[in-house]
Structure formats: C-alpha cells, structure tokens
Amino acid sequence: MATKAADRVGDEVAWTLQASAIEIAAGIRAGRVSARAVVDAHIELLERVNPAINAVVVPRYEEARAEAEAADALVAAAGDGEELPPLLGAPCTIKESIAVAGMPNCAGVLARRELRAETTAPVAQRLIDAGAVVLGLTNTSEVCLWIESDNRVYGRTRNAYDPERIAGGSSGGEGAAIGAGGSPFGLGSDVGGSIRGPAFFNGVFGHKRS
C-alpha cells in the first residue's frame, strides 16, 4: 500500500512513506522535506486506506497539519548548530486507550464512549515533547483484552495486507496503520502480546520494553 501511495506524491516526499521516523525527522531538520508535506502525504494515504482497514478511529488531521507548520517554522528559525527536538515533524499514531488530552479515551467500552481525556499520559507526552505530530488515535480491542481489535464503539480493524483477516490485538489499529504505511511509527501497549501480535500480523516491528 505504501508503494502505491508513493506514486501519487512528489518525489521530494515519496520516500517518507517508507522511511523510519528517525529518517523523516532528520530530513525535516536538514530541509530536505517539509513537515507539512510529510504529514499531508501520510494523511492522504490514510484517507485512502482507512475505510478498508479501520485503523485510525479518531483522526486529528487538521491539528496535525497546524503542528507540522509550526515544526517547519521552528526549523526555519533555528540557528546554526541549534539543537531541535529529535522527532520534530515526524507523524505518528497513538492507541486510543492511551490518554491524549481532549480526545476520546474509552478503550472501546460502549459505556465510556463519551469520555474525553483530561490530561495526556506521560508516555504520549514524551513523544509530543520530542516533536512528533499525532495524526490520530487507533483502534483497540474492548478494554484491551482480546486478540482482535473489535469493539462496539469503533468496530473492527482489518489487516493491512488482507482485509479479510484480523489485525490482531489489542494494539491492532497501530499494527494496521503502520503496516499500511499510513504512519511511520506509533504508540501501543503490551502485557501479553498486544503490540507483538499485531506487529507480526501486519508485517511491522513491534517492541515491548522489558
């Protein structure tokens, strides 16, 4: 999916659809590509593939575009040798069960569907403080308990390579979004395989800190 999307964007940004977050951030700092162009390319891809895979269940695309423009302004204003945030301008996604202030945080539980996070979880805040641009929140299994990401709030997430197959759980939205090329990296959670399973199912690397 990422390769096909690369054919639809300019050469100056196409490489970012298959690059790591570190590579993307380095390209932005070096002026090789703008953060806004990178974010737009990933949003365009997500808007095409997400109807089939249902990975990003809470998009924040306009906010992401504004944050990307702010990142570009920071790069433009930086002096020679000035240290910039390590992930500045790099897009990412975050599992819906991880709190991001002002955004839904129900973990697929119908009774909590109106709940909005009052604060941002420290792990998510560290990504944001490092300069990452959050494209949206991704699907999870109900209460993060099951091996497939399906719930009565957001529905079922499908595999990035074959929509007839599951994306895994509970971080299946992350696995599918990254596997489809819509996000270079993301934040999930894992107790018994909730990152590692979806990563395996969707052909990406998943890391659980020991």
What is the H/E string?
HHHHEHEHEEEHEH
> What percentage of residues falls in helices of 4 or more residues?
25-40%
As a percent range, the share of strand residues is 5-15%
- In whole angstroms, the N-to-C terminal distance is 32 Å
Total number of domains: 1
Give the biggest beta sheet. Answer: 4 strands, mixed
CATH superfamily: Amidase signature (AS) domain
CATH class: Alpha Beta
Record field, number of beta strands: 6
CATH fold assignment = Amidase signature (AS) enzymes
The residue-averaged pLDDT reads: 94
Q: Nearest-angstrom radius of gyration?
A: 16 Å
Compact description:
The protein has 210 residues and is of the alpha/beta class. The protein has helices at residues 2-6, 11-14, 21-29, 35-53, 61-77, 122-129, 172-179, 196-201; strands at 56-59, 91-95, 133-138, 150-151, 155-156, 186-187.
Structural commentary:
The chain has 210 residues and is an alpha/beta fold. Helix content is 36%, strand content 10%. The chain has 8 helices and 6 strands. The protein has helices at 2-6, 11-14, 21-29, 35-53, 61-77, 122-129, 172-179, 196-201; strands at residues 56-59, 91-95, 133-138, 150-151, 155-156, 186-187. Helix 4 (35-53) packs antiparallel against helix 5. It is globular, with a radius of gyration of 16 Å. Mean pLDDT is 94; it is low at 1-7.
